[in-house]
Amino acid sequence: MTSLRRRLLLVIVPGVLVAFALAGLVLATLAHDTLVDELDAGLLARARALGSLFERSGERLEFDYAGQVMTAFEGGPEPEYFEVRYPDGRELVRSPTLGDEHLPDHTGSLSAPRLFDLTLPDGRAGRAVGVLVPVQEDVEPRPPIEYETFRLALVVAVSREALDARLASLGAGLAGAAGLAALLVLFAVGFGVRRALRPVDALADRVARIDADSLDARVGSSDVPNELQPVARRIDELLERLDEAFARQRRMTAAMAHELRTPLAELRAASDVAHRWPDDAALRDDLLRAASTASARLSSTVEAVMRFCRVDAGREASQPRDTSLRALVETHWSGVARRAEARGLRFSDEVADDERVHVDPELLGLVLANLLGNAAEFASAGTIRVTCEAHGPTTLALRVANTASDLHPSDVSRLAEPFWRADTARTGDAHSGFGLTLCNAVARLLDAELHFELVNGVLIASLTGLARAGTASSRTADDDARTRAPHDASATNDPARATRDTTPTARSPSGNPLVDGTR
Amino acid sequence: MRILLVEDSERLAHSIQSGLRRLGHGVDVVHDGDRGLSYARNNPYDLVLLDVMLPGRDGFSVLRALRDDGVDVHVLMLTARDAVEDRVHGLQAGADDYLVKPFAFDELAARVDALGRRVRGPALPVVTIGDLKIDTSARSVTRGERVLDLSRREYALITYLASRRGETASRIEIEDQLYDEDSLPMSNVVASTVCSLREKLESGGAPRLIHTRRGLGYMLADSPP
Questions:
Q1: Residue A15 is part of which domain span?
Q2: What is the pLDDT of residues A15-67, one digit of tens each?
Q3: B59: nearest CA in chain A?
Q4: What angle do CA A435, A436, A442 make, to 5 degrees?
Q5: N- to C-terminal Cα distance for chain B?
Q6: Contact A318/A480 with Cβ under 8 angstroms?
Q7: What part of A 380-419 touches B (C-beta under 8 Å)?
Q8: Which among A192, A398, A476, A493 is most buried, taking Cβ atoms within 10 Å?
Q9: Do residue A449 and residue A411 come from a single domain?
Q10: Is residue A514 a part of any domain in this protein?
């Protein structure tokens, strides 16, 4: 693709040159016509003058020509010619310069004289006018000219060499001016285009300087021309999103490095030190316990990541069945109740006794255990409330609300980011920061949606779109097996899918071995 | 050497502290940045092992605060962050070395020794005083043909005195080098260690090498001052 500058030059320069050429042509034509008209006017004046020298008195025709006054008809360096004929074509008189030659017998009226080019008897290019001139009656008062009936055919010819020389000179001048104008146009257009495209170049420079290390830079629109402002704004929006994505990626990479490297470092240090002093039994036992705890932590993190990958890739099947929501909430609350009580938190389960949902109870349990575990661990004070309400004709919304005075509003959008923790130092083993990431993926598998909001210091986790039991949306087990396990080879004709691993994930009897918190 | 370890992982801190103590270093451990800064400001450590991600102040902030206060203690940063910019950031903030987790304990010990040599000046791998030879790379001590079986505290004491050969080391200085805050040394613990070390050095009637300068401290030399 050519440059904008080249494109503009390719359009503007030929356009301007053609315009100049047309203007020059019009100018040359006008000049030509003007000069020829001047010559023709002179010829006609000569013809009128010669015609006025004829006078008729009865049968007598007089011609008051004086050669010493009209010397050009007598000869000289620039001879002129005339010839007068009777209307029937007979010659009446001619100039001495014609000698034995004749001028063409082409005539017109005084109002429409016949003007034409010819070769003069002396060989030069000439121009002539032929008119029928009325001959004046020598009577008083003179009759109006329209009543004159006797006319003579008069042809006057002069050289047009001077005219041709002037036309040639004018043409050369115009051509030179056109060439010079073309050069000026080229320079001016080039300069103008370059100047006009400076903002584009500046914008391109600014964009070109932005790389992965300077995504916080912005193009800005204050000094950008109006036409480019939408482009600059859109680039800045994209940079903003890219910067956020990179920042999110960096945060996740750093957090993941910490979550994986720290237990590895604990394992390595414990084993290295134990190996270096093998005879110190107390030290060895101490370090083996530390290594065991570190490996359990590492195993938990890796298991959570692996399960997230399976869920996110659609390789884990949902097995929905009618389930009591209240019973599920109470089951998973019992696992964290002691921790909550120890922190002085109260619990309010406001889900109706008969509220039933048609979901995979283990998957929903995993989400509940994470949400309730987080609430028990991080709620600042007061009551943890679980509520349920209709969310559409066939679906429910389950909400877990707790106070969260340590949470900043900007944290809410990051809650489900992989490995995000409010504790930036990432101290402690209880959480890796992957629980809500996993919950988010599991919610999608349940055809539900998990989102968070912070209202007046209360964090509300909402799981919306849960299919209510016994409604049109709660499908049969066969329907669910087909629709909720999209990669199950038995539910598709895709032979490629038939080779995929569809083994259901192993689950502990208690439900959620991967319960983890994010904050 | 007297070392401060600032590490929020209690298990990792425990392993490192156990290993370094067995190498004869006095190691104090704290688990957050604020206490780390306070300890480093108020105690004469030879080396600070500083984690980056810490509760309270992070490691970079602790390091900057120390340098701003003019504390020129050697700092070895320990972190899970391995990006080049993180290393550069740490070194530019005033760290002397940077070690990425997970690391081999032997590598940490070697770097601690290397930084220790910067504290005490370049040390020969083998120090000879009379017929006493201390091989710091093999961590062995021989007197004549006899290999001495020293406890880690005795080894730490003799290498410290050897690093200051010809000088008198006070009891306080020896305590600072050999004991951390958890050891809570009593007033006679240094004298006790000196006594047991002398017994091993002088067994078989060998001449005295550790000389007492009453009221001043102890000196390691092949002849009395």
A1: 4-167
A2: 888 888 888 889 889 999 999 999 999 999 988 888 888 887 777 788 888 88
A3: A425
A4: 95
A5: 26
A6: yes
A7: none
A8: A398
A9: yes
A10: no
